[in-house]
Amino acid sequence: MASTRTNPGTVPTMSIAKDERDNICDTLLELGPDQPTLCVGWTTHDMIAHLVLRERRPDAAAGIVVRPLSGHTSKVMAQMAEQPFEELVATFRGGPPLWSVFAIPVLGDRANMFELYVHHEDVRRAQPDWQPRPSDVAREDAMWDGLTNPVGRMMFRRCSVGVALRAAGRPDVVVKKGDPLVHIVGEPSEIALLAFGRATDKTHVVVQGTPDDIAKFESSPRGL
Fold it and tell me: Going by fewer Cβ within 10 Å, which terminus of the chain is more open, N or C?
């Protein structure tokens, strides 16, 4: 059973994000600090340093999305990665500090759901013996809602073709208007990995369209 410990001065996240927080911590401890991830150049130690930085160093976290600030982010992350691996995992498992935006109920949960799921899969799928997780209805519903709302649609804004999402039992949703249009078919959690820029060969999705249109989609930048 995943640990539910919290550190003094922190609040636990809820639902999908809370499950992913506990699960990625368990996976990291099982693998140790020196295993590869799907994030190029990052080990599992680098991954947990990134996650702790994102929640506890807002001065450095800005560089994750603002390219001119990325140098400061890299410097702080390298310093953080010098901390003992197990201590970083314990800090992250305890949840965000009370002053963090990620500690705000609902808002923090929504902000963390994709981040923690995608990075957990970055760790899992970089291992040679990885297996897909069992499907979870609550997770898939939450992922679909996130992908099809305005923020989720932004993940596809730079695609050079139109994009529609298709998942079993759900109506198709166009997340990027355009002609030609490709369809991304799969479970919402798998589509989420593609939305965040992971390669199609690391996801269980099917991209439907002409070969040229599929190639344009796969070469397009995705994510925030």
Answer: N
